[in-house]
Amino acid sequence: MGYQEKLFSLRQNGVKYSLEPMQSLAAKLGHPEQSLSFVHIAGTNGKGSVAAMCASIAAAAGLKTGLYTSPHLLSYRERFQINGALILEDRLNQYLALFEAQGWPGTFFEISTALALLYFRDEKADLVVWETGLGGRLDATNIVMPKVSVLTGIGLDHTQLLGETLEVIAAEKAGIIKSGVPVIAACCDRGALEVIRRKAAAMGSKIRVIVEDDLDEFPSPLLGDHQRWNTAVAVASMRSVIPGLTDEVIQRGLSAVSWPGRAQWLQTEPQILLDGAHNSEAMRALAKLVPVSFGERKIQLVFGAASDKELGVMSEILRGIPIIESVILVPLPNERGAPVEKLKEFFPEAETVGSWAEAWDKIRDTGLPALVTGSLFLVAEVLRSMEQPAASVDAGELFSFNI
Prior knowledge:
- The protein is of the alpha/beta class.
- It contains 15 helices and 14 strands.
- The protein has helices at about 5-10, 20-30, 45-60, 90-100, 110-120, 160, 165-175, 190-200, 225-240, 245-255, 280-295, 310-320, 340-345, 355-365, 375-385, and strands spanning about 40, 65-70, 80, 85, 125-130, 150, 185, 205-210, 265, 270-275, 300-305, 325-330, 350, 370-375.
- Helix 13 links the parallel strand 12 and strand 13.
- Helix 3 packs across helix 10 (about 245-255), helix 4 (about 90-100) packs across helix 5 (about 110-120) and helix 11 runs parallel beside helix 12.
- The radius of gyration is 21 Å and the shape is globular.
- The two termini are about 25 Å apart.
């Protein structure tokens, strides 16, 4: 069994929603986070898109920029990037060998986070764009002292861990706010935003809330009305971190952004619009995008989702899209997926298939363009089967190895 397979086997141990193990692990590694500068991003939806935009703007400004995100689509290496280049396979395995020698001292996500810290420290990154995994307050990423704390939209997701209301979830996300560190927040639910404002005030942190008047200073590089908000958040965040950042650099950085699996067109025949929306907030944003993208053309919907998601709400939103003519339900390629029999309770007239390959056959038989959504696991399977890129180039020989 290779190093990555051994690491992935740790997933069966679940999640430790506590900072103490991560703090202990960082101490054993000599606190690599203390030599790095961070843009820390939390939120229910949009944090990955904001992270990609922030990293691209920082790279355009001439900074050696690390980007740590999750989950990955096709390759674990996607989680660790410098200026858009993925960590090399050999380099990754050298780090994993260190953790194996220590007896795998943490959960899957804790070790991944520690690996990112080591990599960015050893590469002397000027800035690290740092996306939370789950929540914020007790997320493993929350051991850093950032230059800015960024909060994207707040929605209901992972309620079993984060809480049942937007206010409670907002309090968890706002846990990334540090004393005196500026905060950029998207305009969101009034109650959730008030929680964030109170947290910022308690920490003595100046907060800027993005409102509608802040939108469209720069065109969004990603599809969807919601990306206008994400773009404004990213721009404000980078202006707070990089003194003298010019509009030309911002535009150049935004124009280079690629964030696969989020409103991504596949130039297949027929065409596919691929989106990893997996909760109600993301699905509402997608529902607004679909008519703009397809016009009045009739389309097919291919839907697969994890069993712990808001299946009733998500399906109701999708059923409200008038141009959807037929629905194909597909299982996810892992144990978290909802069985198609369960999905059919929400789409009684839908066809069911046993795999994405079968769904693709049916799409081609009808010839109608398709919307494929419901889970990033499904998105990854589609990209893999179509041999579509899920991230940028390899790092090549750009970086030395020094630990």
